[in-house]
């Protein structure tokens, strides 16, 4: 069964079809386009219309355009609309309308992508599940995810993000979730808001999209919890809370961080459940309780979901752990890399550093004979006027003393470096590029190395540099 026929797409968008075509997917990028996709010619850094001919030559089944690009055959398969983004949104709304499955929308300052992927894992074991790829959570990512949703999906998980006020509500209205989850409210993108309360109000706007009788789920331990609960009440939604506090409907009772695992116990309603996550992190345990709260709201098998959490592992750039061979001539010269280079906030930085503090280096492998816990920390961006204090405040984390050496990247992270004891101070660099030529001196076999920073500070370059040391000798950590 095709995802979209020309006739269905015209009905959804009010556009005009050229040719009688059908497509099996939707793509906005010729680099990842699959044969049979509908290519959507969005205008971003470049005009997608310039790539329509290339997309069709690569096997696209049709293209969504607002004008006929030059150089196409007269019978080129097209869907012509007044505005391409509005056309994509119309496809998304139509896909949502024809789907009889239950939809979960996820937002939060931190943890939304990991939680979305946890939900994909546990829901896929209980029905046909559609979920956003990567972090497709913005004004084009949400309608794209919806437009890709098969009509026979039993569950869908839609991630919704924001950088500025007013972004979440219209996306939530497109998604029309039966369950809306807020993982957390923290000082992320705070420069665009007056206060953390403003961030809470924006996150709570996800409830405006809830279907009648929908369920709102949020972290009840936060200081901003009253703002969120009031927003749920305004929408007539049933509110369920999760967290560690006794008043929460779904509680994390116990959590133990192992070197490679997190073992937790949760009370979901009246049901006590144990779960294991194959990655260390208290934040992963908290996300797991949120996932189980969603499962309870959907009325499906809680015990199975708790067991299936063990099938989830963090994606690249979000805490994924790898064993890296750093000497191409010797298989025993390895370190463990924790790749968390995709984003950073004070909340997520604390979580990642706690994971590193619990890690177990290996002695007797490297030149120093003793394995170390090493952190390479890049700037946390979009924190507004409090950025200096928030970076310096990382020095007060109680478990920071367990980390042997900390390298700092970026002008903001210098605030932390200046507060570190001399023995913990590593390199302090303005950019990631400055450290690339020094990697072999900064790390050693037996080390556990955390790379963490906001995407814009590009500490992902250091991740790539470490991986290249062994010339392809990287394997995922078990």
Automatic annotation (TrEMBL):
Reactions that this protein is recorded to catalyse: D-alanyl-D-alanine + UDP-N-acetyl-alpha-D-muramoyl-L-alanyl-gamma-D-glutamyl-meso-2,6-diaminopimelate + ATP = UDP-N-acetyl-alpha-D-muramoyl-L-alanyl-gamma-D-glutamyl-meso-2,6-diaminopimeloyl-D-alanyl-D-alanine + ADP + phosphate + H(+)
GO molecular function, one term: ligase activity
UniProt cross-references to PANTHER family, sorted A to Z: UDP-N-ACETYLMURAMOYL-TRIPEPTIDE--D-ALANYL-D-ALANINE LIGASE
Gene: murF
Organism (species): Parasedimentitalea denitrificans
Protein purpose: Involved in cell wall formation. Catalyzes the final step in the synthesis of UDP-N-acetylmuramoyl-pentapeptide, the precursor of murein.
Ranges for domain Mur ligase central: 106-295
EC numbers: 6.3.2.10
Protein name from the UniProt record: UDP-N-acetylmuramoyl-tripeptide--D-alanyl-D-alanine ligase
Keywords on record: ATP-binding, Cell cycle, Cell division, Cell shape, Cell wall biogenesis/degradation, Cytoplasm, Ligase, Nucleotide-binding, Peptidoglycan synthesis
């Amino acid at each position: 069964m095709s995802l979209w026929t020309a006739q269905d797409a015209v009905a959804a968008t009010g556009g005009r079809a050229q040719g009688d075509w059908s497509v099996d997917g939707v793509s906005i990028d010729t680099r990842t386009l699959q044969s049979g996709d509908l290519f959507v010619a969005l205008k971003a850094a470049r005009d997608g219309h310039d790539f329509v001919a290339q997309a069709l030559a690569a096997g696209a089944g049709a293209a969504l355009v607002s004008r006929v690009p030059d150089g196409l055959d007269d019978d080129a398969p097209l869907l012509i609309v007044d505005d391409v983004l509005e056309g994509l949104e119309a496809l998304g709304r139509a896909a949502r309308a024809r789907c009889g499955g239950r939809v979960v929308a996820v937002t939060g300052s931190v943890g939304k992508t990991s939680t979305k992927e946890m939900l994909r894992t546990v829901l896929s074991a209980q029905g046909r599940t559609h979920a956003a790829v990567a972090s497709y959570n913005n004004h084009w990512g949400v309608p794209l995810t919806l437009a890709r949703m098969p009509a026979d999906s039993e569950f869908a998980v839609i991630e919704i993000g924001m950088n500025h006020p007013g972004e979440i509500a219209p996306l939530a209205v497109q998604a029309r979730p039966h369950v809306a989850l807020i993982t957390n409210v923290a000082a992320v993108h705070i420069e665009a808001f007056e206060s953390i309360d403003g961030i809470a109000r924006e996150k709570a706007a996800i409830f405006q999209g809830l279907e009648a009788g929908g369920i709102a789920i949020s972290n009840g331990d936060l200081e901003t919890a009253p703002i969120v609960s009031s927003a749920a009440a305004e929408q007539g939604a049933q509110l369920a809370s999760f967290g560690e506090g006794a008043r929460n409907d779904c509680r994390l009772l116990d959590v133990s961080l192992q070197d490679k695992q997190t073992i937790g116990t949760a009370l979901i309603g009246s049901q006590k459940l144990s779960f294991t996550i194959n990655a260390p992190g208290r934040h992963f345990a908290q996300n797991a309780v949120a996932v189980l709260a969603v499962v309870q709201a959907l009325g499906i098998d809680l015990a199975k979901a708790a067991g299936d959490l063990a099938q989830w592992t963090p994606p690249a750039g979000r805490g994924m752990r790898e064993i890296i061979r750093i000497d191409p001539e010797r298989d025993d010269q390895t370190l463990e890399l924790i790749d968390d280079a995709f984003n950073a906030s004070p909340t997520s930085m604390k979580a990642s550093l706690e994971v590193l503090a619990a890690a177990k280096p290996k002695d007797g492998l490297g030149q120093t004979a003793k394995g170390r816990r090493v952190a390479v920390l890049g700037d946390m961006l979009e924190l507004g006027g409090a950025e200096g204090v928030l970076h310096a405040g990382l020095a007060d984390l109680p478990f920071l003393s367990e980390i042997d050496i900390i390298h700092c990247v970026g002008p903001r992270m210098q605030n932390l470096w200046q507060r570190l004891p001399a023995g913990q101070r590593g390199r302090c660099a303005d950019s990631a590029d400055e450290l690339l030529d020094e990697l072999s001196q900064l790390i050693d076999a037996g080390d556990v190395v955390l790379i963490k920073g906001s995407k814009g500070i590009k500490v992902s370059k250091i991740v790539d540099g470490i991986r290249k040391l062994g010339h392809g000798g990287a394997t995922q950590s078990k």
